[in-house]
Design goal:
The protein is α+β, with helices and mostly antiparallel strands. The protein folds into 2 domains: 80 residues, lambda repressor-like DNA-binding domains (434 Repressor (Amino-terminal Domain), Orthogonal Bundle); 146 residues, Lipocalin (Beta Barrel), CATH 2.40.128. Helix content is 27%, strand content 29%. The protein is built from 7 helices and 9 strands; from the N terminus they run ααααααβββββββββα. The chain has an 8-stranded antiparallel barrel with strand order 1-2-3-4-5-6-7-8. Strand 5 and strand 6 form a beta hairpin.
Length: 257
């Protein structure tokens, strides 16, 4: 039988969660909505009652807390020499579940990118938009945000997960249980990242899963003409088409039919 958590340890974890709620201006209902759980579950959590580790994980994701350390505090297995701070290592180290990367190790990702992928609905059309990547000290990690999309309603905002032992990284957005993931190679010397985007696309009356090659090209300047829906008549189309073709030809992504 697992050793029950010390009441003071769980009280400290609850206090940490409450502080994070205040800093992020989130109510119990707001957390329940963002974590895709019942408000009663959040009430149980804030009263120190037993909840599933999945609930702790979801709440940690919403509040920007390190899940592993929150779980240790919740179950009373964290030693007194391991104080858990809301902002991590001075806001310079991402949580363990995101890759535990430091700001210094990933600051070359910070910047803006032309994002290129095929249109999901229009043949011979490429969609190009801007993606900004910044460091978020409130939830220590790289944050991405899409801008200037022709379908602005579906723009995404999320976090970068960077495994230490992989040449690929993940750009993940999570909203009310709905997840979109982009899996691309690490940034190379040419300022490019290549891979696959997997998401949902609206087709007629419903959303269906889709996947396609995607390329991020780091850029200091942007022209209005290079963004939006690109067809063969646009001057940037040929270059964009070549980048997407190289993504599969060079082995950055493989589409199986």
């Amino acid at each position: 039988m697992a050793k029950p958590a010390h009441p003071k340890a769980r009280d400290a974890a609850v206090e940490l969660i409450r502080r994070a709620m205040v800093e992020k201006k989130l109510t119990q209902a707001g957390i329940a909505d963002a974590a895709d759980c019942h408000e009663k579950t959040i009430q149980n959590l804030l009263h120190g009652r037993t909840v599933r580790d999945q609930t702790l994980f979801d709440v940690a994701m919403v509040l920007g807390l390190d899940f592993e350390r929150l779980k240790e505090a919740w179950h009373g297995t964290m030693s007194a020499s391991q104080p858990m701070e809301l902002r991590g290592e001075g806001g310079l180290v991402a949580p363990t579940y995101m890759g535990a990367y430091t700001k210094a190790a990933v600051d070359h990702y910070i910047g803006s990118y032309v994002t290129i992928r095929p249109s999901f609905t229009k043949p011979e059309t490429i969609v190009a938009y801007r993606t900004d990547i910044v460091w978020d000290p409130e939830w220590p990690s790289l944050l991405f945000e899409e801008r200037d999309r022709p379908d602005a309603t579906y723009s995404h905002r999320g976090r970068l997960y960077i495994p230490a032992s992989s040449m690929f990284i993940h750009l993940v957005s999570l909203t009310k249980g709905a997840m979109r993931m982009v899996l691309v190679s690490q940034l190379d010397r040419a300022g490019e990242m290549r891979g696959l985007i997997t998401t949902l696309n609206k087709q007629r009356a419903m959303f269906v899963p889709v996947s396609a090659p995607v390329v991020y090209v780091k850029s200091a300047t942007f022209r209005a003409s290079q963004l939006g829906e690109q067809t063969p008549k646009n001057p940037d189309y040929k270059g964009y088409r070549a980048l997407l073709a190289q993504t599969t030809a060079d082995g950055y992504a493989h589409l199986v039919e």
